[in-house]
Design goal:
This protein is an alpha/beta fold. The chain has helices spanning about 20-30, 65-80, 135-150, 175-180, 240-250, 290-305, and strands at about 10-15, 35-40, 90-95, 115, 125-135, 155, 170, 185-195, 205, 210-215, 220-225, 230, 260-270, 275-280, 280-285.
């Protein structure tokens, strides 16, 4: 549920217009604050727009806080899935494993998780569960519309530092936190995806060790991926694209011959742990790694709580 309005309303400036910044803005507006979002990159230019956006706690710690944020977000997405304008669907899929393993550490974040026995060749274990899958361009547009509907604003602005005008500031700058938070522990993890035509798939498949994933949207399928630490290039590599296609097709043979629509690269903002804390008049909310979408609503609720302090 949206955060309840308690305490005096404030002017809040959210710096960053990816999924984390926009979701924080929505929850802050719902709590009664006056909110302006400012960012160098508009939503469809951010890493969030590239994400396959399968709900999954990937490259994000600490485990206890991530599990709690992920569960809150799961529930929020499940509610949003009732409205196609949000770009959210709840889809069944399977994570496959090359060797038997106990339940994942984030097991408490999903309502149900079943052992899978119908596995592709070469896999020894797996679990099947229902997960939110988010069509990010659609969802980002919906978040912007929600911000504006609630009276907030979104402005392109190339800041040299965080605002210091007496407003409460939410630092949701992702990789930009290397500058805006003077935090060199934030590192890019390059992810390349191939988007292909929809060939009738309605289940997602993930080999997180691979890293290989097949994530269907309503009209296309996102195939991945890569996780190259410390790599800043946003230019798709044709050789990597061929490898992604090969691995994805080996995992899901129905992809054989699917027409390629486009290639994309995003830089995940990785950090040893997600930073979500208030320091003076700044609430830092960054370092979500490969789980920005997965943690978005849970982190936004905590940002609202910190705004009251």
């Amino acid at each position: 549920m949206p955060a309840a309005s308690t305490g005096p309303a404030r002017r809040v400036i959210v710096v960053g217009a990816g999924v984390v910044g926009l979701t924080c803005a929505v929850r802050l507006l719902e709590a009664g604050h006056r909110v302006d979002v400012v960012a160098r990159d508009l939503p469809l230019e951010t890493t969030s727009a590239v994400a396959a956006a399968l709900w999954y706690p990937y490259r994000a710690l600490p485990q206890d806080r991530v599990t709690a944020w992920a569960r809150t977000s799961y529930d929020a997405f499940a509610r949003l899935a009732g409205d196609e304008r949000t770009g959210v669907r709840m889809l069944t899929g399977t994570e496959v494993l090359t060797e038997p393993r106990p339940d994942p550490w984030w097991r408490g974040a999903v309502p149900a998780l079943d052992r899978e026995t119908a596995l592709p060749p070469g896999y020894a274990d797996g679990w099947t569960f229902v997960s939110p899958v988010v069509d990010m361009p659609v969802h980002l547009r919906w978040l912007v519309a929600r911000v504006e509907e609630l009276g907030g604003t979104l402005t392109r602005m190339n800041l040299s530092s965080l605002p210091a005008d007496g407003s409460l500031v939410v630092n949701a700058t992702g990789l930009g936190a290397r500058h805006f938070g003077a935090d060199r522990t934030v590192q890019p993890v390059r992810g390349q995806v191939v988007v292909v035509e929809q060939v009738g798939l309605d289940r997602w498949t993930l080999d997180a060790a691979g890293l290989t994933y097949v994530v269907p949207r309503a009209r296309e399928i996102v195939l991945g991926g890569t996780d190259l630490e410390g790599e800043w290039s946003r230019t798709p590599d044709p050789a990597v694209a061929e490898q992604v296609l090969h691995r994805a097709t080996a995992l899901v043979p129905a992809l054989e011959g699917a027409r390629v629509l486009r290639h994309k690269v995003g830089l995940r903002p990785a950090r040893p742990e997600v930073r979500l804390e208030r320091v003076g008049e700044v609430v830092h909310c960054y370092g979500h790694g490969g789980a920005g979408v997965t943690l978005s609503w849970g982190c936004a609720d905590d940002v609202v709580a910190l705004a009251r302090g």
